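Message: Just now I want nothing more than another pair of eyes on a protein record. I am handing you a single protein, as its sequence and its fold in token form. As I understand it, each token names a local backbone shape. Take your time, and here it is.
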Amino acid sequence: MILATADGLTVYDSRLGDRALLGLKVTTAVNKAGTAEITMAPEHPAYDSFTMYRSIVEISRDNELLFRGRPLYPTYDNDNCKKITCEGERCFLRDAAMRPYLYQDTPAAIFADLVNIYNSQVEAAKSFQVGTVTVTDENDYVRLESEKAGQVADAMDKLVERCGGYIVFTTNDAGQRVINWYESLGYQSSQVIEFGVNLLDYTRSQASTDLATRIIPYGAKSEETGEYVTIESVNDGLDFIEDADAVALRGVIARPVYWDDVTQPANLLRKAQQYLATSKMIITSLELSAVDLSILDKDIDSLRVGDTIQVRSRPHNVDDRFLLQQRTYDLLDPAQDKVVLGKDLATLTGADVAGDRDAMSELHRTEHIIRADYQLGIANAVKTTQETLFSLIQQTSDAIRLEVSETYATNGEVDSKISTTMTQLADSFNFEFETLRAVVDENDAEARAQFETIRNYIRFVDGNIILGEEGNELTLRIENDRISFLDGGAEVAYFSNQMLYVLDGHFLHSLQVGKFAFLPRENGNLSLVKVGD
């Protein structure tokens, strides 16, 4: 069952036929507010039921809340159909102001105070209860400050960026919304993302916007002297640290870093060493797109944002756990659901984490066939035709292989399939259309021979049609206003304006004109006689 409401009013219920929508999508992501899109026709009962920025929109599937937020703005198409874009409830934190602040406390205490400041300024429908906080600091002390006023959302984001962790919203037994701050999400899904089964795309990229091989750390600023704490007193008189291997590889890349809450040089040195250990690395990001198989089989563990998923892909030399970073639900067409997983790997050299491509002598050809058979509405209407296009790009050190398969399914059964493989080599680009090319090559010679035979008898010259075997004395030429008979290339007769013109005529037996005819007699004479009534 799928249910969407706005301020408690039913916008869509999959069990009711009078509130059909044109579109209903939800996108959720790790540490992001998420979005929803609701598209409806002008005659929909809830067409005018949304108050922008105020209404509370909730979307659930099988009693699981997928989205809670508010409508931002509508857009209208040529038929006046309305698409309403909504933002998730984490964006509610933007509605409360944050005066200039200075915190020197534990992460949990700062988090709770920020939530209380927010709750004191907003309506009850947008307030949150402080839930579970598992994020800690090794010194149990965080300094967080701002000399300017801002929004609670900014202070919350700054706290999470400083200490890490994940903001997660839940509902308690009393029906109140709860905001939690977890150090890790931790749930390991039993569903596996596997190449050739439900893995759709694989992307690898390398970047490091904060790359540094030398760190110059600064701590808290002294109120008496106005100077910052440095590490010179505990670092042989040097105010910086560097990594010899990283410097040898990339040269000196110096970066000053500030820790406003560190007052002891020894603690500042330790933080700088930890920072340098990561800043010298090249970050390799792996991003995968996959299909949640639980939409096909309810007994399979479903995938939720924040889950840790085992991913196996032999061609990419991957067998590791990935965090599910983003998920898109197409609630009216579950076959279009999509999940995105990601993982960042840090290495000094930025080596190919996918393994030595030259060692991959074989790549597996895969066709992804995903069939969705589901019910919509109380009439159990079944989607009878689904066309799905999947593609897979496989790359080795000397070739890129692109494979596309297209399947047509009716009630879950595959009716037909077309497969095309394209291979790009270092010195050529060769498209191999598997069956088509073989058929064309096999019949090409015969087709050309038949075409040449026809061409000998039918030719198109200067806009005219010439009939007759090429080289013959007698031919027929068809023009726009004339049909000519040619003998040796010279015109001897022609039709034009419903008349026949003949240069010379020879009649072997008789000549009839209308009801009269010239008929030869036995004695050799020629008589003109009437032959018709």
Observations:
- Helices lie at 107-119, 152-163, 244-250, 265-279, 434-457.
- The radius of gyration is 40 Å.
